[in-house]
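Fig. S4 source data, part A: sequence.
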Amino acid sequence: MDISRVLLKQAQERLAYSPGLVLLGPRQVGKTTLAKAIALQHPGALHLDLQLESDRAKLSEASGFLAAHRDRLLVLDEVQFVPELFAQLRPEIDANRKAGRFLLLGSASGQLLQQSSESLAGRVSYLELTPFQAREVMTEQGSSDLDILQRLWLRGGFPLSFTAANDEQSFSWRQDFIATFLNRDLRQFGLNLPAQTMQRFWRMTAHLHGQLFNASQIAASLGGLSHTTVSRYLDTMTDTLMLRRLEPHFVNLGKRLVKSPKVYVRDSGLLHALLNINDINTLAGHPGAGASWEGLVVEQICALAPPGADIGFYRTAAGTELDVVVAWGNRTVGFEIKFSAAPKVTRGFWQACADINADAAYIVAPVAQGWALKTETAYPVSVVSMLELGAVFQA
């Protein structure tokens, strides 16, 4: 199945004016495939896989190697394995700030961003390649597209999982991915954490998917670990792009607001593998189906939101809540996520919209096509489908 990545055009645009581009994304998400597509637009591009000792050896005298290839695009794959390279890239970019010189691919975000920002501030651009988005696999509005959306929801967006021949192969691939990530990838990232404990932590976050994160409670369930250790586990899984930590959106209203983050397993397919959900019938009848759908929509919103947007959730101690709040420029938009073809909202939704002073509000539901709600509010309120989310941020 040939699926075009929407990030391709954006990456090409960034390389047209920036000396370098850092492309972040989890393992097996398609970064190398995308990089090869970009390289086709740059004749003579050179690709180095820094997991390979032979390719790392080429950078043993990095300053000379980089200077000798100033006339071609250098694709440096899995750059987190050579963190010292960033210090070498800074003077090289300063010596020749021609656009489109470096494409850096990395599988971890937090530590990698810190290293690169210290050395390459103002010299490179950043993009994150996510698992497949709905707009990449769904071609048009219509009932048949809901079948594709259902497959995306069940299997998740990792290319080899989504395009597997059947659900059994997809489920098996995801189980293998989880095992490999815990037993090999974490150690390759330089994180010497116990695989069995990390697996228990990951499964626990899957059961708490979309709920407030309570480090002390999870620590007690993991056998008396400290809450600081559990917080470190969360940081690790967030940095490796496996979990999303959604922070609360604060407004100055004098109300008691929830301060703890909500945590999601970023890929719905991995969530279902952790929960042992292997087919759509099991998923539909699972008590966590609504939370799973919410996580899928949250990821779509985060991928579609404008660069630099503030993305969070709103909840007061009294229970007034919006699942997602996105603020950018002078606009603030609220989202309520419902796993229903005929969604209804409560009084708390309207109060939350008033609290955040929303410019618009949307109820995201598994429908083929959305509709506007008739309200007396000064701002528009609509039910929207997954494919219609993109238009929200273009308004």
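Fig. S4 source data, part B ends here. The chain has a mean pLDDT of 90.
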